[in-house]
Every structure is written in structure tokens, then in C-alpha cells.
Sequence to fold (569 residues):
Amino acid sequence: MQFKIQNLFSSKLNFLCLFFAISSITAIGQGLRTYATEAGLNFGTMATIQQFRPNPKGYKDTLSTQFNMTFPGNELKFKNVEKERGVFNFAYSDSVIAFAEAHGMKSRGHCLIWHSFSQNPAWLTDRWYGTNPWSRAELLSIMKTHITSVVSHYKGRISEWDVINEGIGIGDGHPNGLRKSPWQSIIGDDYIDSAFVYAHRADPTAYLYFNEYGGEGAIASEYAKRDTVYNLAKRLLARGIPIHGIGFEAHFGNYVNTGAISANMKKLGELGLRVSITELDMMNTTNLPNNWKNLMNACLENYNCTSFVTWGIDDKTSWMGSDCGCLIWDSTFVRKSAVYKVLSDAMKAANPNISAQRKAFAAQLPYPQTPLPKAATPTINYCQGETAVPLSVVGSKLRWYSTLTGNVYDLFAPTPSTKDVGTKSYFVSQTISGLESQRVEIKITVTAPTTWYQDLDGDGKGDQMVKLVACAQPTGYVKEASTGINDISSDNNLNVYPLPFKESVMIRLNNGDNQIVGVRILNLSGVTVEQNDEVNKSFISVGAGLSKGVYIALITTSNKTYSTRIVKL
Ligand code: G3I
Fold:
């Protein structure tokens, strides 16, 4: 009996679910959401938890029936999500994303890296300035952890991310127009590159955006910013950075040149980039529905304009305040019929060819889908007597496997910034079997920084951090100085060493009773090319003057003559 009641209950529940599903489909069928979906457009709005939780009358229904995209407006910001270093709190953002998923809506991720002092946690901003600021490596690591954790948490669930928010600062005096934020000042310009790479690695299916205000091209005084964003995107693309779109925040005043905005969208489209209108508020919309219409049309006429997102639903909860009249619903949560109508009409009249193009474009996977490029092997032919490419980047160190000595040298931590460009000397020390310590100089030339990311493929090793060019083709270095001819090593008294990275060969007699009395070096034709008959010491360096070739050295001690082979480069 109990079983039957449960069945009855569950079938009633199913019926109710079906009923609500059908009624919500009906409601969707009459809303902006339907027209947008037909045009292949994400028509979205942000929802903060303050708006979401108290659920003003009809808020959630309006959200799910009129929009096909929603996301947390504040709850994914660094300050809210990683208030304590390394401790992540997704409670609030999860609830909005879950709502979106339950209603078949897409989501945006806003935002990963922002300079805003008040929107980053104190533990982070405390060391942005002052006497103990973060080092480049520390801040990169903080950025990597944050981006990787947040993007991974929503892997496959958030379709587009604002990776860098408001990174342009036209007045800051940076030659490329970048904002001189702590991220830029401490890490360098390539913080942008790294941020995109970290995000792409965490979710290769997400579209990654540079989100900016005033870069839309809405008014002439902002054209410089518009062009700065464009040029930045072009440079990032040229370096293979996985950037897929530009966010037009679109906090607009009364006058908006939508023709210029459309042209800007088109230009960005020619770079292969998407454009999302990400935070739209339109001042005095009640009086100016044409601004809405024209902006919507600007988006609809560009297949690469894939999202049209307002910064909230209603004027009452707008960050601009009710007086702005900035949104589609008024402060009593009644929709503004004139605005609603122009938006519906524009979407209904969308050119079906462009809509089809938009759908196809939007379905393309974010590039690159193949693993991100790794650096070519550093170009270095010979260096200080080496015959093979001896350099690699391991962790944060440039490592030299010496083919000459068989040893490994961790030389320095290359940084992907211009400061390492040029030829520099580095010093390594080498102890030869307890004999002596050599401090030798090697010269390495680092070319322009093709060098924006560290640990690109997540294998724990740095990639493409420096490009090394050949040292001068060496001649005169000792490649080999070995025993092996006439078995001179059998009494273990004589050692012959190629001094690392030097022109000479060290010969040392170990037994202390005898002395080396003479050394003669012959070429392979038997001609003596170097001779010293009055050594009278237990050690000697020979061969410094020899040119490239193979030689035989005859070493005479007080009671014996040894021979060895010397190869010079
Ligand atoms: O949640 C607290 C609440 O507990 C507290 O009582 C109250 C007291 O001030 O503050 C509340 O938090 C505020 C939050 O908005 C929620 O209303 C923050 O102080 C306030 O700083 C925060 O402002 C947000 C602002 O970004 C900074 O994050 C705005 O809502 C949000 O609309 C605005 O959005 C930005 C975009 O992220 C980037 N582009 C510009 C846009 C507008 O400024």
C-alpha cells in the first residue's frame, strides 16, 4: 500500500513537473529568449546574489523566460571566490550557475583578473605595493592557482570567461596603452598572455575574453581606446595566445554611435574574434528606445557578435541606480514596452543568413585545440666546446647538460621579459675529480622575448622561455683527452683531463714519487707540434696552442712514458 501511495505521489510529481515545464516552454516561446535563440544569440543578463536570493516578484521567472544566458555579476570576483589564499568559495556562484543549467541557459564567467583594489582580497592587495611587494614569480603563481582553480571548477559549464577585465589605461603612459596595474607592473606585460594560457589550459572548451569599457567605439573620444584594444588583440593572436573574444562592456550614455560600434565588431571579426556585449546599460532608455534598437541591430548584422548581455534586469537593482533608467525592466519590475518591442522586433527581423553564420561561428571550438605550441629546441650550435645542443629549461632554470664534462649545470632563471635580452656572461664552477675547481665563463645570447608563458603544457617544465642563439663557433677547445692508447692508465698514476671549456689539457701525476719530465705532442702524421722537455713538475697543462685535430701526447715521467689522445675542436 505504502508503495502504491509513493507511486501515486511520484506520478503526481511528474505530472506537476511536466505541467510547469510545458508552461515555462510556453512562456519562453513568447519571450525575447526565443527570438535571440533563433538568431543564434546569447541574450543574457548578470544576476547577483542580492537580486537572486530575495527573488523580487517574478525575478527568476523573468530571468529564465526572457534570457538564455545568466551568470553571477559579483560572486566570481577574486575577492569573493578566494578571500583566503588558496581557499575557494563557490557557494554563491554555484547557485547562479546551477540555476542557468537547470533552465538550459548559458553562462559567462566574470571575471578572473581585475586590477580593482576593492575587488581583490586584502591578502593579495597588501603586497601589491609597499616595502615587501610580490615578486614576479609569486604573483604569476598566485594568478595561475586562481585561474586554474576557478576555471577548472566550472570546466565545460561556463561557456565564456572574462579573463582580463579592464586592462587598458590610456592615460597611464604605457607605450602600448596597457593599464599600469599591479598585475602589469609586477609581472610585466605578459601577465595577459599567461592569464589566457592558464585559462585555456584549465578549460579548452571555453571562449576567453578581454573585457573592456570604452573600447566599443561608441564615441569619438574613445577611439584611441578602441584601437588600443584592437592592437593588443592582434599582438596576442600573433603570439598564439588563446584569446577568442573582446567584451564590450557598453555602459552607455545618451549618445551611442552604433554604426561605429558595428564597424568595430566587423574589424574584430576579421581577426577571427568574437564580440560580446557584456554589461550593457543604456542611459535614459525609456526615452531612447532607438539606442537599444540600433545597438541590437549592430550586433545582429555581425555574425561574430555572439552575446548581448545587460548588467541586470531592472532599474531598481542597477549599479547605476534607478534614476539612470538603464535597463529593460523599470524600478517596479515592469518591462518597458517600447524597449522590449524594439528588441523583439529587431531580433525577429534578424537576417537569417547572418544568424546561420553566427550559429556556425559560435559552434567552432576555441582555438587552439591542438596542444599549445612548445618552444623549438633552443638554437645553439656549439658553445664552449660543446658538440650538441646542451640547453633546456627545467622548472624555472635554464639547464645545461654538458656533453663535454658529463655534468649538469643549472645556470639561471630566465625571465620572459626584455631584461634578459642580449648577450650575457654566466659563470659555472666545476670540480674535476677533486683536482681543482674551475670557474668558467659561458656566454649566452637571449633574443627577443618570444617568451610569454611558463610551464605551458602543464608538465611541470617551463617552455619557450628564452630563445638561445649560438655562441661563436668554437675552435681550439679540447673535446677529448683520454687515456686508451698503450694503456697508460693501468698503473693509475697519471690522470689526463680536458679542462672544461678550456683550450688546454691537464696532466697530473698522482704517485708523488715521480715527476713529469717531458711532454711531446704529435699530429697523426707523426710530426711533433708541441714539446716541453723541462717540466719537472707533477702536473702540467698542454695543448693550448693546438689547432683543430687529433693528436697523440707522449708524457714522460722519471721512470715511464705514457701516451694519450687529444681531440681539439
Ligand atoms: O554584498 C555586500 C553587502 O553585504 C554589503 O552590505 C554592501 C555594503 O556596501 O556591499 C555589498 O557588496 C557590494 C556589491 O557590489 C554587491 O552589491 C560591494 O560593496 C560593491 O563594491 C559591489 O559593486 C559592484 C562593482 O562591480 C564592484 O565589484 C557592482 O555591484 C557591480 O555592478 C560592478 O560591476 C562592474 C563590473 O564587474 C566590471 N565593469 C564595471 C561594472 C560596474 O562598475
Summary: The chain has 15 helices and 24 strands. The radius of gyration is 34 Å.
